């Protein structure tokens, strides 16, 4: 009995968390790299239909595991590589070309989800599924219906990255550390997204109060409008310049993964199915949401100005209309 105890302890200590990344393109491989660097999971599995590409990415990442928290990397074009994953992040999708809107991508990406989601759910039925492929809100809504998974178990990365862009721009304008800025983008991850200015703060100071009393940088309506415009359009500028956005979205995706695997109950603006959120239902879009090991918990009803509510409703109406276009 005494001999067995150390073995049992060793077995318990070796329990691993498994992250499966579907798609070994720019976003998928960067997300896997970010997850390894942050020690988000003990096993990172890459899946892609391009066998040579996915095996090369996995090998390249494996050669660097000496320099990151302990982890194992595997890659394959066989979907069984995702078996028993705790979290599945889907990055596969049609590539956004310069000048192309996210909605233009919907048809091709939804078609891909019809192909890959059923076998994924078969090999990893208990995983939390995070969609990181555009247009993320419509794809998330369609994927819920294609997969048959509960709404808490499958959601999109939403405006986690957009909110990070917003916080960066606010921090840069007023001259404070970005960690001290608390602000969210809500609605569509796209052209109709809205900054929630009324609930934003810098430190303990409401952002709209900072506009009058802050020690650096006026924060009037014109500045807010300029920042909101930059948040919406920055992805287009990056795509025009380098062909894809990958670093920040990889880090944003990893942040969501950590919230799930560590059961953090963190508040993140992910895209999930709404049911009577300020009267808005039957659409996936981003609002501040508690995220943990079981996926989506509560969606927080943050204070909204009339303009913010109207913007959120417009965003929902647009996304619902696009989903109906594709039969959902």
Description:
- The chain is α/β, with parallel strands linked by helices and 328 residues long.
- The protein has two domains: 4-156, NAD(P)-binding Rossmann-like Domain (Rossmann fold), CATH 3.40.50.720; 160-325, L-2-Hydroxyisocaproate Dehydrogenase, Chain A, domain 2 (Alpha-Beta Complex).
- The chain contains ten helices and 16 strands.
- The strands form five sheets. It has a six-stranded parallel sheet, sandwiched between helices. It has a three-stranded antiparallel sheet with strand order 7-10-11. Strands 12-15-16 form a three-stranded antiparallel sheet.
- Strand 4 (87-90), helix 4 and strand 5 form a beta-alpha-beta unit.
- Helix 6 packs across helix 8 (221-242).
- The N and C termini lie far apart (58 Å).
- Mean pLDDT is 90; it is low at 1-14.
In short:
The protein is an alpha/beta fold and 328 residues long. The chain is built from 10 helices and 16 strands. The strands form 5 sheets. It has a 6-stranded parallel beta sheet, sandwiched between helices. A 3-stranded antiparallel beta sheet has the order 7-10-11. A 3-stranded antiparallel beta sheet has the order 12-15-16.
């Amino acid at each position: 009995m005494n001999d067995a105890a150390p073995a049992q302890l060793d077995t318990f200590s070796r329990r691993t968390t498994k992250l499966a990344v579907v798609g070994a393109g720019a976003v998928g491989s960067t997300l896997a790299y970010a997850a390894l660097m942050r020690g988000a999971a003990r096993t990172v599995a890459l899946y892609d239909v391009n066998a040579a590409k996915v095996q090369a990415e996995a090998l390249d990442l494996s050669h660097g595991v000496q320099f990151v928290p302990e982890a194992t990397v595997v890659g394959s074009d066989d979907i069984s590589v995702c078996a028993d994953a705790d979290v599945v992040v889907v990055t596969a999708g049609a590539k956004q070309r310069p000048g192309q809107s996210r909605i233009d991508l919907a048809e091709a990406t939804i078609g891909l989800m019809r192909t890959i989601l059923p076998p994924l759910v078969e090999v990893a039925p208990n995983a939390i599924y995070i969609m990181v492929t555009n247009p993320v809100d419509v794809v998330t809504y369609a994927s819920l219906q294609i997969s048959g998974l509960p709404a808490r178990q499958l959601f999109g990365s939403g405006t986690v990255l957009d909110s990070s862009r917003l916080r960066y721009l606010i921090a840069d304008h007023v001259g404070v550390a970005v960690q001290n800025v608390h602000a969210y983008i809500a609605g569509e991850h796209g052209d109709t997204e809205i900054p929630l200015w009324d609930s934003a703060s810098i430190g303990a100071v409401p952002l709209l109060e900072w506009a009058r009393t802050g020690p650096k940088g006026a924060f009037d309506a014109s500045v807010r409008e300029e920042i909101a415009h930059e948040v919406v359009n920055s992805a287009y500028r990056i795509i025009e310049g380098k062909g894809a956005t990958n670093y920040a979205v990889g880090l944003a995706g990893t942040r969501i993964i950590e919230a799930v695997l560590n059961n953090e109950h963190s508040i993140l603006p992910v895209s999930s199915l709404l049911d009577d959120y300020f009267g808005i239902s039957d659409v996936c879009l981003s609002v501040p949401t508690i995220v943990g090991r079981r996926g989506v918990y509560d969606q927080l009803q943050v204070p909204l100005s009339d303009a913010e509510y109207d913007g959120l409703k417009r965003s929902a109406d647009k996304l619902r209309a696009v989903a109906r276009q594709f039969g959902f």
